[in-house]
Amino acid sequence: MELGPYETSIAAGAEGAAAAMAMRIVAEAGRLLGAPRLIEIGSVHVDGCLYHGDSGVHFVEKLVADGGQVQVPTTLNVGALDLLHPERVRGDTHFRDMARRLMDAHLALGCTQSFTCAPYQTGHRPGLGEHVAWGESNAVAFANSVLGARTNRCGDFLDICAGIAGRAPYCGLHLDENRAARAVVRTDTLSFALKDTDAFYPVLGAWLGATFGETVAVMDGLPFGLSDDRLKAVAAGAASTGAIGLFHIAGVTPEAPTVDTACGGVMPETEIALTFDMVRETRDRLSTVDGNRIDAVAVGSPHFSRDEFSVLAKLSKDRKFAVPFFACTGRDVLSALENSDDFSVLKSAGIEFVADTCVVVAPILPESGDVLMTNSAKFAHYGPANTGFDVVYGSLSDCVESAVTGTVVRDETIWR
Amino acid sequence: MAMTLRGEVLIDGAADGPLFRMAKPISFWGGIDPKSGRVTDPRHPDYGASIAGSVLALSETIGSSSSSAVMLELIAIGQAPRALLLGRPDAILTLGVVVAREMGVGSIPVLRVPVERLPTSGLARIREGGEISFAS
Fold first, then answer.
1. A288-410 matches A5-176 in CATH topology
2. CATH 3.40.50.300 fits A5-176, yes or no
3. Distance between A312 CA and the closest CA of chain B, angstroms
4. Which of A2, A55, A234, B86 has the most neighbouring CB atoms within 10 Å?
């Protein structure tokens, strides 16, 4: 691991103590990963503004106190509070105070007040081949796979330090040779109808992550022109059940015009035909309970896009929910939504908007409930451990119908 | 039966404790309680066990990039494993240790080892420089 002259001078304190600590930590990360050097980056997405304990707050406040400022455009992932609806998140004074301090400290470092896990749907879209340093596993997978930008999965702390240093370790997914697919997934035995169903894509992601861990795979036989919302569902599922930082879809994602190109001209190590039974088994694993009653519904992991709200508004028109229905999103999407007809439809149906955070990272779900229904593989994966709720997975339409009756309503005809 | 091997030092240090070789990889965020070190993911085979005070062996790091913050917090409050033995290079959990060291709240040794060759239980002792011995 060798630092260039500029990096060495920063690490030695030429721009102050915060820049020095940030550069040292980025260099340490480079050493741990076996990187020969650092690389200049174009942007950062910081996952570290979610409160996990006082130690993380002290770290970021130290960067502020020592004069730290980000050197590249830097967006923020969710915090532990909904700053737009402060009553939404329960918590004692200490929790609220520390969670707020952590969010504020990141703003003081010059980060953008985005507070979303889908920054790529509110304008933060690095270009093909651009080196960046992103945190938040779904955003990393989206940036690499869908945008063709280049980032490793930056843990908390590395992300903000990379922003301050303007550098990231040059290794892993920054390099051509690690971006080629080693596995091929054929999907041609699956029906076109299934592949044209939104609820298939979180399941596909969950299967990909559980099957491949961190191996780069290329999927073939999926419809051209897949929407960003379907692609983000794959990214979020794959990065929850596994450590997928990059996947390719032939004819869809930018580094995979064909399967052969995605494989870099090298014979893949594995080839798997994804069968309907595998899809159904993965779908079933996303639910932890078999009962009938639900206590709440949550959607928006990753954060709901404006388009997803339009679909939800169509499904919710003139409906009334029997259980709380939470829709998590970023403040930018919410403000774009607020002046629309969709917003009044969603409001009158009783949708509860959650901004800046989400129901799985902050205490928002009803204290008395036991079962949460969701259309998100990520909520389904993390929900039980983080909220104590069992989960039921279903399509967005299933979620709406179930919320109306308070019992699980599932359209099984989409799964064939 | 005693067994000794040398790990690649990611963070140097000495430690000993009961070996806890996890049955499956885990995401520290969403899988480990940052207040106690207990495994909170009900779908994980080690659900309910605690990593605090163990020599923790993991074949790979999966899941959330917030796991660094959970690692730092566990060290800061004294509920961390005494050492990490990792099957793959990792800058998520290990970076939590790096930041703990920068903040002066503590450090633990982190070594890269072929996790599949380790015993599944017993005691592990790590010496500075990367030598690890196991005893049943």
1. yes
2. no
3. 28
4. A234
The tens digit of pLDDT for each residue in A346-358 reads 999 999 999 999 9
Tokens of A238: 């794959």
CA nearest B10 in A: which residue? Answer: A32
Question: Would you call B109 an interface residue with chain A, using a CB distance cutoff of 8 Å?
Answer: no
CB-based contact A189:A57 (threshold 8 Å)? no
Q: Report the first-to-last Cα separation within chain A, whole angstroms.
A: 52
Q: Establish whether B27 is a catalytic residue.
A: no
Q: Report the SS3 class of residue A355.
A: strand
Question: Residue A156 is nearest to which of B69, B75, B102, comparing CB atoms?
Answer: B69
> Per-residue confidence of chain B (136 residues) as pLDDT tens digits?
579 999 999 999 999 999 999 999 898 988 999 999 999 988 899 999 999 999 999 998 776 778 899 999 999 999 999 999 999 888 889 999 999 999 999 999 999 999 999 999 999 999 999 999 999 8
Domains and their CATH numbers in chain B: 3-135 (3.50.30.10)
Q: Which residues are bridge partners to A327 per DSSP?
A: A299, A353
Residues of A in contact with B105 (CB under 8 A): 55
Exposure string for B99-122, b = 16+ CB within 10 A, e = fewer: bbbbbebebbbbbbbebeebeeeb
ipTM of the modeled complex: 0.91
Chain A nearest CA to B86, separation (Å):
12
pTM for the model: 0.93
Domain assignments of chain A as residue spans, ordered by start: 5-176, 180-284, 288-410
In CATH terms, A288-410 corresponds, of 2.40.37.10, 3.30.499.10, 3.30.360.10, 3.40.1390.20, to 3.30.499.10
